[in-house]
Write a structure and sequence with these properties.
Oligomer: heterodimer
Low-confidence stretches of chain A: none
Radius of gyration of chain A: 23 Å
Order of helices and strands of chain A: HHEHHHHHH
Helix content of chain B: 40-55%
Number of strands of chain B: 7
Helix content of chain A: 40-55%
Shape of chain A: elongated
Mean pLDDT of chain A: 91
Radius of gyration of chain B: 18 Å
Largest sheet of chain A: none
Distance between the termini of chain B: 29 Å
Low-confidence stretches of chain B: 1-7
Number of helices of chain B: 8
Largest sheet of chain B: 4 strands, mixed
């Protein structure tokens, strides 16, 4: 193909891309990821923070319209699981990638994107402060204390004006 | 709407670097008290998508999506870089440590964005950003390069992609 023909073909593909950017599948996925702070765009787009996302649509949008969708998708699925229909049988590679991210283990490239490149988004500070990054999330842990210790803990937390958990954290930090 | 988002990106960048400028001022005041050496003016060279979004004309021309990373070459004191990372986090951004690996094609220039007392910020020129993306990361930028070629607003883009051994045929495929 000579250069003129190549440029003509590129222009035809660009027109197809323009149509794809109006596709509802892309608009829903992008509207959701922009609303949640994973992506930004300079295009007019309705923000859809409550949208449920079909992963097939997200993958289509990433492969056909905006490849950056694929880069943030594993972290978005991990951090906002209720918004996605993740299923191990349908999306085994994505399921495995999300599992590795969750366990903080080394994973494999996904859709040609190196693990290191899609891992960084699990640490992103999102505009919705309820969505803490994994390292900041609190984890439930059960201890069995003596009644005397519990009385002491309550008394100390009242003195410090903070929760009992925080009192223990402070004591440990000052000890270490 | 596009204007608003554009304004937000420019405003966000200005806000980030004004905050950094202020923090350097504070650090310098402390050093003055402690009779330590004054921090040199920090230099930031924006690369990649952020430099495209920071350019008003280009941002109106191309459909740009961006992850929350800031690609930039930083020439600054390590204490200043630490401050920058804190400020970026507050803005929902992460500095991309791989930034120095970004390839700059021959003919790249940097245009001034902000020249503050303690921080000098420039951005890579848009056509060179596009050439760099087309040659080194075509998969991730297929649609962006096609749109740039379609716009016919980057007069030497195709020549520069070819002269740097980029594969134009890749962009002609679906």
């Amino acid at each position: 193909m000579n250069r003129n023909e190549l440029v003509k073909q590129i222009r035809r593909q660009a027109e197809k891309d323009k149509r794809n950017r109006k596709n509802p599948r892309y608009l829903q996925v992008m509207g959701f990821l922009v609303a949640k702070g994973f992506l930004k765009t300079n295009q007019p787009i309705q923000r859809l923070p409550n949208q449920k996302i079909h992963l097939l649509d997200a993958i289509w949008a990433g492969q056909n319209v905006e490849p950056r969708i694929l880069e943030v998708l594993p972290a978005a699925v991990l951090r906002l699981p209720n918004h996605f229909d993740l299923n191990a049988a349908e999306h085994p590679d994505l399921f495995a990638a999300v599992a590795k991210l969750k366990k903080r283990e080394e994973g494999k490239p996904l859709w040609g994107i190196p693990f290191e490149k899609y891992k960084v988004w699990i640490h992103l500070t999102l505009p919705d402060r309820r969505m803490k990054e994994l390292s900041e999330r609190r984890v439930t842990k059960t201890f069995r204390f003596t009644p005397q210790f519990i009385t002491l803990l309550r008394k100390r937390s009242k003195q410090l004006g903070c929760s009992e958990t925080e009192t223990l954290e402070r004591a440990l930090k000052s000890d270490g | 709407m596009a204007d608003n988002v554009l304004m937000n990106t420019s405003e966000q960048l200005r806000s980030i670097f004004e905050q950094l400028n202020g923090r350097i001022e504070e650090l310098n005041q402390n050093r003055h008290v402690e009779r330590g050496p004054i921090i040199a003016k920090a230099d930031v060279k924006l690369l990649g998508q952020m430099s495209l979004l920071a350019n008003q004309k280009v941002s109106l021309l191309l459909s740009l999506a961006q992850t929350a990373d800031l690609d930039a070459l930083l020439d600054m004191d390590s204490a200043v870089k630490k401050e920058l990372n804190i400020i970026l986090k507050k803005h929902g951004l992460i500095y991309d440590e791989d930034s120095p690996k970004v390839w700059q094609p021959e003919g790249t220039r940097f245009d001034l964005l902000f020249d503050l007392k303690n921080v000098h910020v420039t951005a890579m020129d848009p056509e060179s950003v596009l050439v760099s993306k087309a040659v080194k990361a075509p998969e991730k930028n297929r649609q962006l390069i096609r749109e740039a070629i379609y716009s016919a607003k980057f007069p030497t883009l195709i020549d520069r992609i070819e002269s740097n051994h980029g594969n134009l045929e890749f962009f002609a495929k679906g």
